[in-house]
Amino acid sequence: MSEQMSARRLRAEPEREPVSGWAVGFAVFGGVTMALIGTFQAIQGFAALLKDEFFVVTKNYVYDIDVTVWGWIHLILGIVVTVVGFMVLTGALWARVLGIGLVAVNMISQFLFMPYYPVWSIIMIALDALVIWALCVYDRSAAEEAGA
User: In whole angstroms, what is the distance from residue 88 CA to residue 131 CA?
Assistant: First the structure.
């Protein structure tokens, strides 16, 4: 009888692999970096709205979007990314998935903004890639087991 019960337990509770301490750290890194990226993005938007001549506009580029429009895009996207970055710190799966999507949109917006401020755009794209990686590696079961 005891053999049957232990066999049921094995089926009901699969063994978990040992959890690396890095798993939760990746999520924290992703959430905090998202909040920073969003803040930087919002500041970039304010700069474009308040002093649009700060950004050098390249003539004869493939697309021509007014710097004020970019200001609103960066401001709104920055605020949303910051809020979702703090939500990622709660460990919610929906926040992580939404974070990955928003950071991907942010990455595209920075790519399109590259003619106006190339070095900053490249730095932001690299940070966005790191955040996407960190949020994809994170495992909720690891956080539960680590007590987070």
Answer: 11
